[in-house]
Amino acid sequence: MPHEIPATPSRNDVDPLLKGDEYDRVVVHGTDADLAAVVLRLLRTDRVADVPVGFVPVDHQRSVVAQVWKLPVDSAGLALTAGDRPLPLIRDDAGGVLVGLGALTSVSGTVYCDDVVALRGDASRIEVTPGPEGVEVRVVRGRLRRPAVFSGRAVQFGIDGSSPVHDGVTHSRLVTRWTWYRHTEDLRAIH
Fold first, then answer.
1. Which residues pair with 148 in a beta bridge?
2. What is the DSSP annotation of the chain?
């Protein structure tokens, strides 16, 4: 039975729907930020391992999750009927999750991907997406230079103040330290 909830839903919108075992999956029709909000509620209610999650983006071309999950343009049928596969669930040290794209712009400082230095100095942009090991990190230093790509379990930033953007939502304040890392349990993604 479908339930309509508001965009980027809160605990009060999602948690009552996650109680009990009457649903065999959750399907989110919305933006990457909407999906992240629902996945966060699954994490906070200890249901990540129990509940498969499908996603139907409202704008397939603008959805990074659609690219990462390799969703077809018409993903509604897939989300409602297909089986799930494990996909790394990425968390951050501010208590959030990352399901699509995390980015910081005009970065100055040091960035590590696991124990490898991904950046020491300046970059115009750093992008983080879920990957096979946990995170995929792209360091863009300028328009004429090829981005450096790193893969690992975690990425840590020690930088001059910047506001991370995760799944299209800008963090509420400037940070000098930030971490995205692979959670101990994978997301049961329908893709």
1. 139
2. ------SS--HHHHHHHHSSS--S-EEEEE-HHHHHHHHHHHHHTT-TTT--EEEEESSGGG-HHHHHTT--SS-HHHHHH---EEEPPEEETTS-EESS-EEEEEEEEEEEETTEEEEEEEEEEEEEEE-SSSEEEEEE--TTSPPEEEEESEEEEEEEEE--EETTEE-SS-EEEEEEEE-SS-EEE--
Are 137 and 151 a contacting pair, CB within 8 Å? yes
- Mean pLDDT, the chain, rounded, equals 93
- Band (7; pLDDT cuts 50, 70, 90): confident
C-alpha span between 78 and 91 (Å, rounded):
26
CA dist 64 and 73 (Å) reads 13
Domain spans of the chain? 11-90, 97-182
Query: Which of 101, 104, 100 shows the shortest CA–CA distance to 122?
Result: 104
Asked if residue 168 has pLDDT above 80, the reply is yes
